[in-house]
Amino acid sequence: LMWALSFGPERQTIDGRFLIIRIRKNELGENRYAVNVSKKVEKSAVKRNRIRRQIQEVIRLNEKSDIIPQKSLDIIIFARKSLMKLKYSEIEMAVLETIKKLWKKMTSSFM
Question: 99, 77 in Cβ contact below 8 A?
Fold first, then answer.
């Protein structure tokens, strides 16, 4: 995940109620994803990993849809503390809604 550490000023960010998503272009021809659920969000590693797996599953199931375009992007998803109280269906809605907001925000010059 060294690529996730080198996000520079060319990135786009959206702050949602439950998530923060950062996105930037890469040169690989495919999207890469990283999910971060920090210890500040939840002390229990079991609960952090559960949320991380659920977010990854939402991405996996929606990866080929129009919601997540295939445009050679690096996408990092940061969970907020408020996400820990949600059920899977609510997490799915939160992830997809935040990604939709990000696409609306992005300018054509970025892509």
Answer: no
Predicted TM-score (pTM) above 0.90? no
CB 60 within 8 A of CB 29: no
Distance CA 79, CA 95 (A): 10
Position of tokens 């503390």? 81
pLDDT tens digits for range 29-72? 888 889 999 999 999 999 999 999 999 999 888 887 777 766 78
Tokens of 35: 């999910």
For all residues of the chain together, what is the average pLDDT?
A: 82
Torsion over CA: 8, 98, 33, 54 (sign): positive
Residues 6+ apart with CB under 8 A from 74: 3, 4, 7, 23, 24, 25, 26, 31, 32, 34
From residue 28, alpha-carbon distances to 13, 44, 47, 72, 74 in Å are 21, 35, 32, 6, 10
Are 56 and 50 in contact, with CB atoms under 8 Å apart? Answer: no
